[in-house]
Structures are given as C-alpha cells and as structure tokens.
Amino acid sequence: MVEKTFAMIKPDAVAAKDSGKILDLVEQNGFNIVRMHKVQLTKEGAQMLYAVHKERPFFGEMVEFITSGPIIIMALERENAVQAWRDLMGATDPKNSAAGTIRQLFGKSIGNNAAHGSDSIENAQAELNLFFANA
User: Lesser CB count within 10 Å: N end or C end of the chain?
Assistant: First the structure.
C-alpha cells in the first residue's frame, strides 16, 4: 500500500552540505518526493513538532538544536513509506546504525543524527499536516 511520511534533514546534515547526498539516497530507495522545502524552524514550530517529548528532560535541547539552522522538510511517498524511511535512516545512534543508512553515513551522535522521520502512520499524518497543507 502506498503511504506518505514526513521526513527531515536536520541542521547538522544541512550545515555539513550532505543534503544532496541524502536526497540521492531518498530517490535511489524508491521514494517519490511529493513536497520539499528548506526552512528555518521557529521555537514554536519545533515545540509543536516535538510535543510528544515535552515532558522529557532532553526536550529543550531538541528544540534548541532543531532551530539552530536550516532544515529540509519533505513529504515522501512510496509503498510502506513510514517503515521504509525509518529503515533508510537507521538507528537513532549512528554507532548502532546499519551500513549504508543515512545516520551511519552522515550522523555524528544521538542528537546530531542527520535525519528525522515519523514513527507511525498517525504521526506521519500529524507531522505532514504541521508543515504541508493537503500533503
């Protein structure tokens, strides 16, 4: 079944000029980029994106990092898009990511791990609605 998911190239990967390489991997792995923008998130936007983590001790650090520079946000589409994007990103900690995944190739740490992706179809729709009207 064809699904849509939300994907982000985080500030660390944008600053390192890895965006083009990551976008190439996106397309090589069968994703259709339905929408894409390079944006600078506001603190309010970041708080809305990470609202599920607002009670966690690292919430403030996440918000500060994600607003530290431009990001690339995407609406991706393909069969089983949510899981396929998570598989392509790799484990949260780049040290534990499989070879050839985005985080293994471009991530530096758990916090600076190059990419974000929705963890469920429901969260994908909520994140897409946050950034893309009618995505």
Answer: N
